[in-house]
Give the backbone structure.
Amino acid sequence: MAFVGDRLEIDQELVDDKVRRKAMSPSTMNALAGNGCQARFAIEKIVPRDESALTASSIGTVAHSVLEDLYGLPGPERTVFKATEFAAKHVGEVDLSTVNINGFDFAHASESEKAAVRATVQGEVHTAYRGIFDIEDPEAVNVFSTEAKLSDVDIAGVPVVGFIDRVDRINDELRVVDYKTGKQKKSSSIFGDPHGDQLRIYALAGAKLFDQEIENAFVLYTKYSKAQRVAMSAPKLKKTERLFVDTWEELGECSDEATFETTPSGLCAYCPLARICSASKVTDADAVGVPQVEPDAVAVYPNVAEEPVETDESEAEGVLSEPTAEADSVVSEDIHQTGESTMTRWPEDKPWEAEVKGRLNPNSWAAGGIAGVVTNSVQHLNAAGYAVNKKNIRALSSTLVNLIARIESGLAGHDGARWGSGLNSLVRLTMWRLLDHEMPIPFGASAGDWQSWETRLVNASVGIIATTEAIYDDAIKPGGWVLFTSDNGESAEPVAEDETDTEAGAPEEADEEADDTTKTETEDETESGEDEAIDTDVPFDDIDDEAFDESAMFDD
């Protein structure tokens, strides 16, 4: 193996033996789709995995086995006690020699030490599956199939492989269900919808396997007692199918060429190539918790396509010349007096690197995004007649930054703002337009007015971006103007501002009342006959509806 520039080249025989796939699973699609790293995918097929009994993957595997056994029983027998019995059985089959807790050595451990470690593993497994009893009543579920194997089926000509955790029958319809013992992942404009795509693949393949269309799918987050419905509209299914086919073709091409591109991301720390790859974002190799490829096992060569650039001597002198007095004079005296070093060299790095040596990278997308916030603050302060000084700029900038973080986290499901992302850029673009026209900053207003303005701005921004994605995904339907005709009978009068403020509520309140609001949304969708409405017979008590995630942020 060798790195040539930012590409990993692997011996063709090794690729054919370990990396190339005869069929594709949803997990393979998710590993490569979007910003997935080809090099990491390839090396993880070659380097042995850490099979410790206490890794999240191992705990999840045992928890899945418990649920498979549980739902294989007749309804009345699916009790908490039976699940505990199955957990004890499967944990008893676990190889404790892989466990490493405070130097635990299985070969020299006493029976009491082994029993304690086994109890620890069983406790982790119990925690991983226990939430299923909060999500639904297992005794009432009409199970059609468990661990249905996908074989001899294809999606748009691409062979599929995998197992569907559970298929339920509700009246005459089938529903696919997948268990997840990790944290909930919602659809994101940045990270895609890996869990949703997985269930849509299962639905498309399951329809061929069972010779029946599957229109409902749920992800059950059994550790966190959450149920999330998966969008199954025709545009969503088509989009996932296209992603599946494109990823299969991508895998085939890089396997044929035995060359795999690197894509740096926040997941670099979990890659076996972290200490070798030049694109890796890992700075402390000791913190990497996965088996690492030794540096001497992979040769590293510069990119052969890059030729040294010849520079004319006079041009080089021009580049290194001292700045003119005129250029230096544009730096105001106030900046020199801030106590911050502005005259020392400001190191730069690649655009996706937010920092260099603990300092903001001026070449980064993050720097450009934050500079845009500060510039807008200066513009609005000046227009409102406020002093454009450091104190006011920082106060207004921090307010706008907080709003951007709230909007972005509401859409993507992560904490805070990620300034280098495309979603962050879209949030800022939407906010600036609203501030310039529909929702100007309420300078001089009361604290209550400011809080109301923040809520309305967050709601409107999330609503606009969510609608943007919905319009992109859905087919364009003609005749929408009928809502605005005189025949419609709807009043064109605007809603009173005090009514809007009262009903909107803060995002925090919307989160606290999510369960009740979700039930209302579900009933409304069912009555309107929408494609993605939740069946009223679904036994899940705590459903996190994708539709609610978007619509709950709108003002009425």
About this structure: The CA atoms of residues 482 and 488 lie 7 Å apart. The chain is about 45% helix and 10% strand. The two ends are 59 Å apart (CA to CA). Residues 1-304 form a domain with the Lambda Exonuclease; Chain A fold (CATH 3.90.320.10).
